[in-house]
Specification:
Strand content: 5-15%
Largest sheet: 5 strands, parallel
Radius of gyration: 17 Å
Helix content: 40-55%
C-alpha cells in the first residue's frame, strides 16, 4: 500500500472516529446475516450485508447484458452501484425491487465469481465505508474484520459445523436434514468454505482479535444475546 493510499485511509478513519462498528464474519449459511440484522435492530445501528453488494453487482451486470467474467464491466458496475436499503428489508436497484431476484442461485454463483476480482472488491470497499454512519454499524460478510473495517470495535467470527449449517439451509427450503438433497447441501457448503478460505484476495479467516462464536448448539436469540453482551463489555 503506498503512503498516499494509507494517508487517505487515515483521513477516512479520522472522519469516522467514534462511530462504532461491529463486524460479523463467517462462512456461508452460518446465520451471520440474521444475527447481524437483529443486533443492529437491538442497538439502533445501521446494518450492512456485504454479500448483497456482490449480488447487486451481479444483478446489474445481468440487467446490462454483461458477463460476470468481464472484470472491467464488473468494476464499472461496482463503482456506479447506488442501492437503496429500505427499513422494511427490501432492496432497490435502479428503482426496481430486487430483494427476491438477488437471492436466486444463479446470482449467488455470479457473485462468488465477482468476489475474486481484487478491483471489484476495492470498488465495493468504498461503498462499504460509506455505510459507516452514526450511531453505529453492524456489518456482516467474509472480510469485514480483515479488510474493510480492521479498526472495528468488536469483531466476531461466527461459525457452525457444516452439517448444522446444511440442516438450517435445508429447513429454510422445507427439506429434511437427511437424504440426497441434504447431502448435496452439505457438499455444496463444504465446497464454498474451501473456495472462500483459499481465495487469494481477502480469504475467509478468523482474525487474531476476533471472538469465535460457534452457533452449532445455540439458537438465534442466544447468539444475538452473546454478541450484545460482548459489545457492552467492549
Amino acid at each position: 500500500m503506498s503512503s498516499s493510499h494509507a494517508h487517505s485511509h487515515g483521513h477516512k478513519d479520522a472522519a469516522h472516529h467514534g462511530i462504532p462498528v461491529i463486524t460479523i464474519d463467517g462462512p456461508t449459511a452460518s446465520g451471520k446475516g440474521t444475527v447481524a440484522a437483529r443486533v443492529a435492530q437491538r442497538l439502533g445501528f445501521h446494518y450492512l450485508d456485504s454479500g448483497v453488494l456482490y449480488r447487486l453487482v451481479a444483478m446489474k451486470l445481468v440487467q446490462e447484458g454483461e458477463d460476470g467474467a468481464n472484470e472491467d464491466a464488473a468494476v464499472r458496475a461496482a463503482q456506479t452501484l447506488e442501492p437503496e436499503f429500505l427499513p422494511d428489508g427490501r432492496i432497490m436497484l435502479s428503482g426496481e425491487d430486487v430483494s427476491a431476484a438477488i437471492r436466486a442461485d444463479g446470482i449467488g454463483l455470479q457473485a462468488s465469481r465477482l468476489a475474486v476480482h481484487p478491483a471489484v472488491r476495492e470498488a465495493l470497499n468504498v461503498l462499504q465505508h460509506r455505510a459507516r454512519k452514526a450511531p453505529g454499524l453492524v456489518a456482516d460478510g467474509r472480510d469485514m474484520a480483515s479488510v474493510v473495517f480492521p479498526q472495528a470495535r468488536l469483531k466476531i467470527f461466527l461459525t457452525a459445523a457444516a452439517e448444522v449449517r446444511a440442516c438450517r439451509r435445508a429447513k429454510q427450503l422445507g427439506l429434511p436434514c437427511e437424504g440426497l438433497e441434504y447431502q448435496r447441501i452439505v457438499a455444496d457448503i463444504q465446497a464454498r468454505d474451501l473456495a472462500d478460505s483459499r481465495r487469494t484476495s481477502a480469504p475467509l479467516r478468523q482474525e487474531p482479535d476476533a471472538k469465535l462464536l460457534d452457533t452449532s448448539d445455540l439458537s438465534i436469540d442466544e447468539t444475538v444475546k452473546k454478541v450484545l453482551d460482548w459489545y457492552r463489555e467492549s
